[in-house]
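Working notes for the structural subgroup meeting. M.R. asked for a predicted model of this chain before we commit to crystallization trials. I am recording the input and output together here so anyone reviewing the notebook later can reproduce the run.

Input as submitted:
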Amino acid sequence: MILFLSIAILTAPPADQAADNTLFESKIRPVLVAKCYTCHSSKLSAPKGELLLDSRDGWRKGGATGAAIVPGKPEESLLVKALRYSDPDLQMPPSGKLPDAVIADFERWIASGAPDPRTAPEAKGADAPSPPRGMALSEGRKWWAFQPLTMVAPPASGDSRWPKNAIDSFILAKLNEHGLQPSEAADLRTLVRRIYVDLVGYKPTYEEVEAFVIEAAPDAYEKLIERLLDSVQYGERWGRHWMDVARFGEDNPTGEATNPGYRFAWRYRDWIIEALNQDVPYDMFVTLQLAADLLPGTSRHDLRALGYLGTAPVHHKDLRLSPPRGGRE
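Returned structure, recorded in token form:
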């Protein structure tokens, strides 16, 4: 009996170790499983940074940048540095900074010596979430949007009267493919209403309709198109489509009292309208909204384009942008 009790005492884990493991099991392991195994699991063929966090031996060995955890020294542990988001080049998890209370749990766990009962990677039944599936770079380069522009001959058609240009020929070919015929040409009053609604978003007045009908000049259609394209209302109508894409909003309705509305969002809205009316090239239109403050010679007028980065609905998160290397913050 004495021998049995002696063996039991020697093999049982110390009481303080069991207590330390309680912190790990309740506060640390769940976060590792939910936030870290996607990129740092032994079940992945190429773990990010060569770092494994699904076993004690994994973090002890560390990754490409060295030891992830220094037991007893949270301030010297790269894992803590990554969780704090204090270094723009080392931020984990990449999906967003964890709550301060969770980071404090990790600091407390490491300060206590980082006790970890895991002697092997997680069992098969606890597989890490599969990493996001993507497309190989070689396949991505075949995507239609990245192909060089080429001239395509319009399809031949038995109707030589209806097509007015090459685009009409493609439309007619698709209609014929489905056994359909083009609609009858719209009368002048219907046509002018369609032009207004399409380009500026509202119907013309009676006087505007009649003026178009009475003019009846060969180039009346083209002249009306150019006049509406030059109007302020054109930018207002089509700027709405871009604001939908950018999720533009002025009131920031997230249901949280600490998220006030955007008082000067209208400046970004006006910039979009003006840019469309000034025929700003699309590549510059996008570039200004992402980096107007980093482009040399950008006017104060165009700095309003940066509203794109701040007027979409947001919840509480770290909104700091990583400063570019060698550039301005």
